[in-house]
Amino acid sequence: MRIIVTIKQVPDTNEVRLDPRTGTLIREGVPSIINPEDKNAIEAALCLREQVGGEVVVISMGPPQADDALREALAMGVDRAILLTDRAFAGADTWATATTLALAVKKLAPYDLILGGRQAIDGDTAQVGPQMAEYLGVPQVTYVREFTVANGHVRATRALEDGHEVLETALPALLTITKEANKPRYPSAPGIFRAYREQTVERWGAAEIGADPEGVGLKGSPTQVKRSFSPPPKEPGEVIKAAPAEAAKQLIGRMKQKNLL
Amino acid sequence: MDFTFSKEHELFRRMVREFAENEVAPVAAQIDIDECVPWDVIRKAAKIGLMGVPFPQKYGGAGAGEIGYCILMEEINKVCGSTATIIGAHTGIGAMAIYLDGTEEQKQKYLVPLARGDKIGAFALTEANAGSDAAAIQTRAVRDGDYFILNGSKIWITNGDIADVISVFAVTDPALGARGGVTAFIVEKDFPGFRVGTKETKMGIRGSSTAEIFFEDCRVPVENVLGQFGAGFLTALKTLDVGRISLGAGCLGGSQIALDMAMDFAKNRYQFGEPVAQKQAIQWMVADMATEIEALRSLVYRTAWMLDSGNMGRDFSTLAAMCKVYGSEVLDRCVDKCLQIHGGMGYMKDYPVERMYRDARITRIFEGTNEVQRLVIATNLFRKIGLRIKG
User: Fold this and answer.
1) Which residues form the domain of A202?
2) With contacts defined as CB-CB under 8 Å, which chain B residues touch A29?
3) Known catalytic membership, residue B367
4) Confidence grade of residue B391 (pLDDT, cut at 50, 70, 90)
């Protein structure tokens, strides 16, 4: 079985602090990590490989520094790591990213399963997985917290806001994995040093995956960012100072005014 | 010069920090109360290769070198002095003696399972009448055909009651004394005549076990002589030299977390209408802690770098002793200031500072007291200008 896992390198938002003077993010010294739910996807792939055998290939689109995320995946135990990196890929929105990843997946055919995290902590869009499935024309199941593979089919439990949904589909298929699915293993200590000293991260550019330069990166991105801004700070609350009965009356009046009652 | 860590060491630190915070920190308070070894943590550490970090991968290690091992000890000691002590005695001196002076066969037989964490190691030099005066050991080893017969006892042996494999030092020729008369042996806990005595109750590092061990006509095969016959004291000194760097690294981690906690507390504790961090008295303590910590960091990693570069000469020995002295004393000052900044809160058992304060105290004593380290440093320095210090 060939399992492909798509991952993204993101800034560790747990480590981000606000500048006390400017109120902006302090980006200096913030470590880059594998997007947490992508780690759940890697763990799911490794567990499946342990059960049924086969190969886990991890791919990521990003700048050359994303090499570190792929080394970490190798240290966790994946068989092969490929970095999709090219100036032509820069500035990609979710669609152009999905296109690039899907082209690499096609090159890796035949494959049985594509796994990715539910969403990335820096963008929170949860779009790349579904867009890849659409591009590739394979069935998709999102928000998967549990799945089993047997007889060429995958049976997956989706975690929805109001309950669970169990779906079954034929392979190949794409699943996006939630953090409830498992506890990702630590990369092993020997694995870390082997990943840097003995293993290689393959690099594929636009030419290697046969990408049309107009269809990837900024040029291939239908989303245009018009403006980015911080939301205005929340206004302080108001204290109604009056005798209790009068205060309650004022409060109800105010709530009616705001259509809350 | 280049003071940056390699990417592999950076990823290793991130992994170890996550492991320390998620797996070790949650049990640290309880193992201190219960005085019990955190076996679950040790098994998890073994599974991801944290029990043989400095050794080459061909011997079951992680291949992280001394720098990697210092990173491990730094991060583990941030959250639990007991766990750091268990790993330190196992890896840093117990298995290290075999790595430094063992034969290829001994490494395959003993170092590999130790480095993988399948077995636990210990280092047994100290005796009731031979502490700082390590040359005064009385445990005897007498040859009997293909065996040596060991008789005597060792005290305060970290992991003494849980170790499977122990590097033991015994007198083989009393007439020759320390230089030539002491031999190192690899002893398995199942050898006939090996017995564990009393387990000690301690002020700190209570989650690590410290025990007395006895050799009563203990039969050790000749092939378990570690290093040259009669050169055991050199094996002990060399091993302890190396162990002192990582001991300093542990102190670095303990000092750093003391500073982090002190700053966090000073930022959030309000007195006189403002955070106590606004008081110069607090600021000066913080500045002093941070300055000493940076000096210690440079000393520890410079010395680790020397070892990884293959330099084990006298200057290395001097620096290693400095790592131990300065590390333990910086830690002492940092936990003391941290507790002072926390005020009454720091004195309460509900808060980890109290445990950190107790755990820190042993570092000025074990693996060679700071007084002996100063003697080593001074002896090495005066030797350079032609004066022999009698010791």
Assistant:
1) 2-209
2) none
3) yes
4) low
Q: Which sign does the torsion angle of CA B184, B188, B192, B198 carry? A: positive
A77 in contact with chain B, both atoms CB, cutoff 8 A: no
- We find that the CATH architecture of domain B233-384 is Up-down Bundle (1.20)
Domain boundaries along the sequence of chain B: 7-120, 122-230, 233-384
- Tell me which of A24-33, A163-172, B68-77, B359-368 is least confident: A24-33
Q: How many CA atoms, within 13 angstroms, populate the side-chain half-sphere of residue B279?
A: 16
The top-level CATH class assigned to B122-230 is mainly beta
pLDDT-above-70 percentage for chain B: 100
Binary contact (B68, A189; C-beta < 8 A) = yes
Half-sphere exposure of A66 (CA within 13 A, CB side): 22
Q: Write down the mean pLDDT value for chain B.
A: 97
Count other Cβ atoms within 10 Å, centred on residue A135: 17
Query: Is 80 exceeded by the pLDDT of residue B39?
Result: yes
Q: Tell if the CB–CB gap between A75 and B7 is shorter than 8 Å.
A: no
CATH of the domain at A162: 3.40.50.620
CB-CB under 8 Å, B8 with A193: yes
Question: Is residue A254 included in any domain, yes or no?
Answer: no
B381 contacts B318 by C-beta, under 8 angstroms: yes
Does A245 reside within a domain? no
The tens digit of pLDDT for each residue in A95-120 reads 999 999 999 999 999 999 999 999 99
pLDDT value at position B366?
95
CATH entry 1.10.540.10 includes domain B7-120: yes
Residue A101 CA to residue B30 CA, distance in Å, equals 48
A191–chain B Cβ distance below 8 A for any pair: yes
Whether the full predicted model's pTM is greater than 0.95, yes or no, is no
